Amino acid sequence: MEIYQDEVHALVGENGAGKSTLIKVLVGAYKRNSGEIHFNNQKAEFDSPAQAFQNGINVIYQENSLIPQLTVIQNIFLGAERFTPLGLIDEKKIYQEYLSISEKLGFELPPHEEVRNLGVAEQKLVEILKALIHKTKFIIMDEPTASLSENEIEHLFRIISELKSNHISILYITHILGEVFRIADRITVLRDGKKIKTVFTKEVNRDEVITMMVGESLINAYISPTTGRKKSQQPILKVENLRRKPRVNGVSFEASPGEVLGITGLMGAGKTELSRLIFGADKLEGGQILVNDKSVRFHSPLDAVNQGISLVPEDRKKDALVLMLELYKNITLPTLAQFANKGVISSGKEFDITIQYIKKLDIKTSGVNQVVKYLSGGNQQKVAISKWLQTEPKVLILDEPTRGIDVNAKVEIYNIVGKLAESGVCVIFVSSEVSEVVKVSDRILVLSHGKISGEFKRGVSQEEIMRMILQADK
Amino acid sequence: MTKKINLNLTWYSIKKNGILFIFILLCVFLSIITPGFLSWANILNILRQSSIIGIMAIGTTFVIIGAGFDISVGSLLALSAAMCVGLQHYMHWSFAILLVLIVGALVGLLNGFLAAKIHIPAIIATLGTMTIVRGLVYLYTGGYPLYVEAPDFAFIGTGYLGPIPFPVVLLVIMVAFWQFILVKTRFGRYACALGGNKEAVRLSGVKVDYYHILTFVVGGLMASMAGVVYAARLLSVTPLAGQGYELDAIAATVIGGTSVSGGEGSVVRTLVGVLLLTIIANVFNLLGIHIYVQYVIKGAIILSAVGFDTYSKFRE
């Protein structure tokens, strides 16, 4: 892939297509397995984002990387302060430089305001200014409009074209195609971690790009077996008007044993927050949860577990596993009481059950004693799922269960989900990868801004759901 | 890939058992240069010198495994010792001991509450209780030393069971008991797990705060028990008793391979850490190294042990 000078180059692809990984490899946050990077016609070896930054490549992430307690000017000049001959910080010179550069780009920020008091859009501008002060030649923007309003997006686009005329190249990452067609010169489509095509924006239309994004990927070739599933008429879980600011704003739905209920939506739509609410991990601010038509109150995850509800959280490393512990200790964590006789844990029993799950879910490991840290992402995910299967849940919520794992492992996870539904478990499959939600679920809810904006049955096409998501978002 | 895992495992086992190698090497070396080193009398002597810090360090091990920290145990030892002596004016010494252990557990409970529920960083929370408890010691003693009057109470510190000093028996029983609790019970397992990743354990449906606080209760309880032995061994308690003991207990724990960031550790290895510190102190005394210099060296040893742990974690 090539990016020219003075170009706005869009990188598009579905969630999980490998966009974020590509950037991280590009700036040296991740080590690459093979391949080369050339920058300004020179072979580039970046060991860390800091090194890439010094060489004029700057990434503006979705979450901003400013220091909230410092002022706008202090943030912009962080690491590039100007000094007086005595070695003191030259406030005057900094201020003048700031004025000249912000004039050039045609916008104004309150220079002495603390960054935490600014809006999200203004913070993005601060990051852009910071990049310019550090003599950046190449800016990577990762979903920059994710939390911006219509007006702010307009403003950002004006600045992007301004940057372009100042000889700065931009790699613009997004899955909102409307934006791409407005600002990009060329588009590169990624799918399953591979480049599908690079095209000039003028030469293609929207539908062609969607087709390239969706394509005949491995996941799309996967067909979920639905035979043998008997959805019960009686819903096991009902939630009514669930609320927790700011991400969950009144969600109601029901789910039955033996069905896979998919929940999808953009990042930040409130999927994870909703999952955590149902599991009692966060406090409910309004609404109620009914299990078997009985209203329940969860004060902690323990209460939810006792009602037969389990959650495999989104962030494996942070929320699901104790990385430094052995495999079997992770798996028996929620059910340890069952392995104790008069308070004394029987490791033998723990090993037996762990071996069962290693076989059942085909976990690739050197043994029950392996420390979970050294497993691959897909196998770690299987450990997290095993841990919860053991509690024999009636409702199993899987939050982004395939994030960051390879395609084969993904398909294995889908098969596990199918088998669970067959055995009468109610599976709630939460994912922002529309392609997999469509394949796996019997019923699909679309979540936008913390509300359900649409419901679909099995058989709906991926495009239809994507359209619904993007519509609801704008 | 397999090669890498093997490498990691070897590294892991060295990290885990390195302290044992060093300990054995040191013992062999010392038995060669000082003929009496491996004599029964000297071994018992080393064990007896280790008993007070050893008992205290068991509690410290639990606290640190749970990713906590407790620097109040030195003060708590003093309070326990003072109360244990003082209360004997009003009741039989066995009741005094019972009461003192309860006080120790309560101080631990307070530490745990401040750390787990109020979310004060444990080192700051226990810095506060350390100061409060030391103040209570002065209030209780009025600033004067207290002396033990009941001769049979002294058995706990100076008596023998057969050929073995009672404090050593107590130490060995406590190490065995708490190692069992750590490895074989839910409390022990959860203590390790929550030290490794508290949020993941909470989301596993475990009452994490309860178990987190319990680690501090063990810390307080064992500090009090150490205080009882201290009083019975020295037969007097000054208000300055136990100053700096918390550092020895923490040092022994960390030298024993318990990770300062929590999640892994062992009571038995902590005992090895205590013995190592005692032996080193003995050697220094034999070599005539001044106590001031010993402080400097001890500090360096602690930093090396912690640095080894944290730096190897960082490299991963």
Automatic annotation (TrEMBL), chain B:
The keyword Transmembrane applies. GO terms for molecular function: transmembrane transporter activity. Keywords: Cell membrane, Membrane, Transmembrane, Transmembrane helix. It holds the Pfam family BPD_transp_2. It is found in: Cell membrane. The chain crosses the membrane at residues 20-40, 52-78, 90-110, 122-140, 160-181, 210-232, 271-293. This is Ribose ABC transporter permease. CDD domains: TM_PBP1_transp_AraH_like. It comes from the Bacteria.
